[in-house]
Amino acid sequence: MTMLQPLFSHQFGGTIWRMEIDELTDILLLEIRNSDDKQVSFASLSLTTGQLYFEGFTTEERWLTGLEAVYDGVALLHYYKHEGSPEHKGIVAIGAQDATALWSNYSHAFDHLSTNGPIVYDTSLQPKKPMLADMITGRPMRSYQPADAPLPNSIAVPANAPARDFVAGILPLEPYGNIVHSLDYNNYRIVSLHTLKNGALQQHLYIMEDPGVVYTDLLNTNIQKLQPEAFVLHKNVLVYIKNKTEIIVLAL
């Protein structure tokens, strides 16, 4: 039985708040939030080679900004209307490999990424009138049509399963809260679970291949509540976050 090893890992100077994967280029875009400095930055990596294209990229807005989507080598960022509001305003497009400024539009907001390109809308108009925009220039091309369906992707996320669904003894540790996040891929079963140790929660990741564990990592320690799912699978690549600040990638 061969033990798996990470393809690469990278530590960042803040909490990895959001990540998006370019379906065509396998580029991983990250939104990094440092609450102490009230600073948001962005980073970009290749999921195939581990190359760090850039990190520490910031916009003119320090805090009220975030990541929308990435596709075909273009990353879309946004601003928030005001602090405490989830409502987005404005779109800023940058190169996903070099952070080169491509275009910006402060009167439009992003709706979704379709099979034909980004769907946007003018925030000053009510009711909302979605439009198809050009990814490279940001120029509105036409009104939204039913053919502009959300773009499918190759991302698989784990399902929540009660511990009783697993054969007795198959899980390496007894899960706290009776909840396990689980995903099967090829001959692997990938699970994350929480345990209680000395009054504090820990979150663990295991990759199992009959007859045993071929990879394990301790994701979080001394946490106060159950964490959301710890990993995603993109094509044949497992991506997970450790201690909220480190990205780790394995090829399966």
TrEMBL record:
Top-level taxon in the UniProt lineage: Bacteria
Protein source organism: Mucilaginibacter psychrotolerans
Name the UniProt record assigns to this protein: DUF4905 domain-containing protein
InterPro entries: DUF4905 (IPR032595)
Record Pfam families: DUF4905
